[in-house]
C-alpha cells in the first residue's frame, strides 16, 4: 500500500489485514477506482503551496495522493476504529495532520489556521458521507478560512441540486447557498462500482471555485439566507405567500418587500436569481 494502490484487490486485503468493516452509520463506501481518484486529485490541483483539508479520509486513498502534491494535509476522521489502518497507510507522511473527531464538533478555523501562511492555496477535498453532506460542506464554506476551491464527491442528486439554475426543479436552498460562495461545476459522474461496498446510487464530483463568486453580495448575509430559506419553505406557493409564512409577517408586508426589490409578488422562489435574493435581503427592515 506504500505505493498508493487502492484497487479492489488491495483494498480488500487492507480491510482483511486490519479487520475493518465498512460502517453504515458513518456512510462508509471506500473508493477503489484509480481513474476517479485521479480525476479528483487533478481537480484539486495541489502544489507545494497548497494546504488541503480532507474530511472522512477512510482508508487514506485520497489522503496519500493529496500528500504527494500538497505542502500540508489536514484530515479529519470520525471513526476511531480506522486509527490503526490510517496510521499504517500514512506512516512516514510528515505533512499529514490526522485528527480523529467529528468535524461538525471541531473548530475548523482553529484547527487549520496554524498551518496557513498568507501565500498558501487552501483547498477542501472530500468524499462526503451522504447522510451529512450538507452540514459538512457548509461548515467549511461558511468558515472564515481563505478557501479557494472545494472538490467534493456527493450523491448525484445532491450534485444536481448544487449546480441547478433558476427555473429548474432541482433549484433550491442548496443551489443558492453553494453558488453564492463560488462558481459550481459538476465534473463527472461516479458509478456505484467505484466503491467498496457499493452504494445504491450514483455519485458525482463537484468543483466549487470560491475565487469566482457572484458579483452581487449581501450586506447582511444572515438576513440573505433567512430570506432564501423563507422563500423556499413552501415551494409551490407564490413568493408573497412563502415569505409571509417563512418570515412570519403579513402578506401585505411581504408583497411590499418584494415590490421594493423590483420583483412580482406572484413569482415563485425557484425563478429567482442570486441577485434577486440579494435585492430582497437589502430591502428587509428598510
From TrEMBL:
InterPro entries: KsgA/Erm, rRNA_Ade_diMease-like_C, rRNA_Ade_Mease_Trfase_CS, rRNA_Ade_methylase_Trfase_N, rRNA_adenine_dimethylase, SAM-dependent_MTases_sf. S-adenosyl-L-methionine binds at residues 29, 31, 56, 77, 102, 127. Residues 36-212 form the Ribosomal RNA adenine methylase transferase N-terminal domain. One of its GO terms (cellular component) is cytosol. Keywords: Cytoplasm, Methyltransferase, RNA-binding, rRNA processing, S-adenosyl-L-methionine, Transferase. The keyword Iron does not apply. GO terms for molecular function: 16S rRNA (adenine(1518)-N(6)/adenine(1519)-N(6))-dimethyltransferase activity; RNA binding. Pfam families: RrnaAD. Its main location: cytoplasm. It catalyses: adenosine(1518)/adenosine(1519) in 16S rRNA + 4 S-adenosyl-L-methionine = N(6)-dimethyladenosine(1518)/N(6)-dimethyladenosine(1519) in 16S rRNA + 4 S-adenosyl-L-homocysteine + 4 H(+). Its EC number is 2.1.1.182. It is found in: Cytoplasm. Belongs to the class I-like SAM-binding methyltransferase superfamily. rRNA adenine N(6)-methyltransferase family. RsmA subfamily. Specifically dimethylates two adjacent adenosines (A1518 and A1519) in the loop of a conserved hairpin near the 3'-end of 16S rRNA in the 30S particle. May play a critical role in biogenesis of 30S subunits. This is Ribosomal RNA small subunit methyltransferase A. It comes from Alicyclobacillus sacchari.
Amino acid at each position: 500500500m506504500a505505493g498508493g494502490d487502492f484497487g479492489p484487490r488491495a483494498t480488500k486485503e487492507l480491510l482483511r489485514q486490519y479487520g475493518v468493516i465498512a460502517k453504515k452509520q458513518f456512510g462508509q463506501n471506500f473508493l477503489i477506482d484509480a481513474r476517479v481518484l485521479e480525476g479528483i486529485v487533478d481537480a484539486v490541483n495541489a502544489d507545494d503551496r497548497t494546504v488541503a483539508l480532507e474530511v472522512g479520509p477512510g482508508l487514506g486513498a485520497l489522503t496519500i495522493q493529496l500528500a504527494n502534491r500538497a505542502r500540508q494535509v489536514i484530515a479529519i476522521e470520525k471513526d476511531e476504529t480506522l486509527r490503526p489502518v490510517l496510521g499504517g497507510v500514512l506512516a512516514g507522511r510528515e505533512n499529514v495532520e490526522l485528527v480523529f473527531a467529528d468535524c461538525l464538533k471541531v473548530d475548523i478555523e482553529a484547527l487549520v489556521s496554524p498551518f496557513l501562511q498568507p501565500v498558501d492555496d487552501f483547498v477542501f477535498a472530500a468524499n462526503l458521507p451522504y447522510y451529512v453532506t450538507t452540514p459538512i460542506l457548509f461548515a467549511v464554506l461558511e468558515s472564515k478560512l481563505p478557501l479557494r476551491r472545494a472538490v467534493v464527491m456527493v450523491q448525484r442528486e445532491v450534485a444536481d441540486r448544487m449546480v441547478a439554475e433558476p427555473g429548474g426543479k432541482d433549484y433550491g436552498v442548496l443551489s443558492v447557498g453553494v453558488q453564492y460562495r463560488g462558481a459550481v461545476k459538476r465534473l463527472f459522474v461516479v458509478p456505484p462500482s467505484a466503491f467498496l461496498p457499493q452504494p445504491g446510487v450514483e455519485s458525482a464530483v463537484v468543483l466549487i471555485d470560491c475565487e469566482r463568486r457572484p458579483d452581487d453580495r449581501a450586506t447582511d448575509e444572515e438576513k440573505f439566507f433567512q430570506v432564501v430559506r423563507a422563500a423556499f419553505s413552501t415551494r409551490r406557493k407564490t413568493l408573497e405567500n412563502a415569505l409571509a409564512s417563512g418570515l412570519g409577517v403579513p402578506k401585505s408586508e411581504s408583497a411590499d418587500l418584494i415590490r421594493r426589490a423590483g420583483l412580482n409578488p406572484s413569482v415563485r422562489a425557484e425563478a429567482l436569481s442570486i441577485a434577486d435574493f440579494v435585492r430582497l435581503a437589502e430591502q428587509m427592515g428598510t
